[in-house]
Amino acid sequence: MQQREILVMGIINVNRESFYEGSRCTAEDFYRRLSKAFEEGADIVDIGACSTRPGSTPLSPEEEWANLAAVLGKVNDYFRRSGTPREVSFKGRLLPRISIDTFRSLIVKRSYELIGPFIVNDISFGEADPHIFSTVAELRLPYIAMHMRGTPQTMQQLCNYPQGVTKEVTNYFIERCTLAERAGIEQIIIDPGFGFAKSVEQNYQLVRDLGKIKEAVGAALGKEESNVALLAALSRKSMLWRPLGITPNEALPATVAMHLQCLLNGADMIRVHDIPEGVQCRTLFHLLNKE
User: Fold this and answer.
1) For position 56, what pLDDT does the model report?
2) Known catalytic residue at 167
3) Contact 137/160 with Cβ under 8 angstroms?
4) 212 carries an active-site annotation
């Protein structure tokens, strides 16, 4: 059996609003945090400049850009000084090792001008900005496409899925991936959007059905399941700590347990606050799946 490629994506948030305080980073500390993330084994680092946690009000484009502009120059400094490769192999292609968590085409364009290719991590799958598909396609950037309903302010009131959460999320991916590919986007990584317009039980249903989602999306798009990439992003989220009666600060063991389950169920990438533990989780997954 060929070892499945699994990538660990570390999180650095350069804003003051992200739900987990441990992910927040100042511009002054960014270079150290970026260096530490790659030293700890992150394959990709996802930079977030605008919080989209439930109930939050997104920053204006200029506020988001101010947060990013303060740190993106340090990305180039890091790769130049460290000699770390700027890309990582994944499913027969190369992915940039930097991801930017944004739903705005303006931010994508400005970021590209500063650092060149990166992964666009869009929580809205193109619905928040009608120009983002064409921008991503023009710049030939990889694209993480997440399922969400509404906005961060309204999404928790939009958890009704008459056909079942798995079927409706799957159909959404088929429809939106088709549109994204028609627009010219070449590399799409799907993200079920744990915690975004889902109840606790719906989140766990999606975890159980990750393999079904990959298989159905692949079949609809004419791809082998192994060629469909899926990101699991549930690190320290409320679906873990609320049922346990704990806080996000206490949710690392639950996070690791759920990351391993997501990998066993078909996830190809895990987005983590705690990189060493994410790397260990991947190692144990590979040990479990040896021939």
Assistant:
1) 60
2) no
3) no
4) no
